[in-house]
Amino acid sequence: xxxxxxxxxxxxxxxxxxxxxxxxxxxxxxxxxxxxxxxxxxxxxxxxxxxxxxxxxxxxxxxxxxxxxxxxxxxxxxxxxxxxxxxxxxxxxxxxxxxxxxxxxxxxxxxxx
Length: 113
What we know:
Blueprint: H1 3-6, E1 10-17, E2 25-32, H2 35-46, E3 54-59, H3 68-71, H4 91-112
Antiparallel strand pairs: 1-2, 1-3
């Protein structure tokens, strides 16, 4: 392959969807001369390995993300930790303790009465 023809090739990212309700997941990257060839290569390489209902092939140059400096803007500026679910992990044990305390109280009142 000459260097002239190699320059025309681009890297494509392949995403697949396993079911209508599932999201797309990144599978692999491939080198192809155009989107049509990339889609054909993705179908040949991926479809025979795993069942899926849809494939996306995206030129890597068309994917844009945040720089490390820009990612800092994603940090929370407010203190609204009450919106996070981390405080609800022990709800079942709390209910169990309250139930046991309630049932224990009911038992002692029955015995006294």
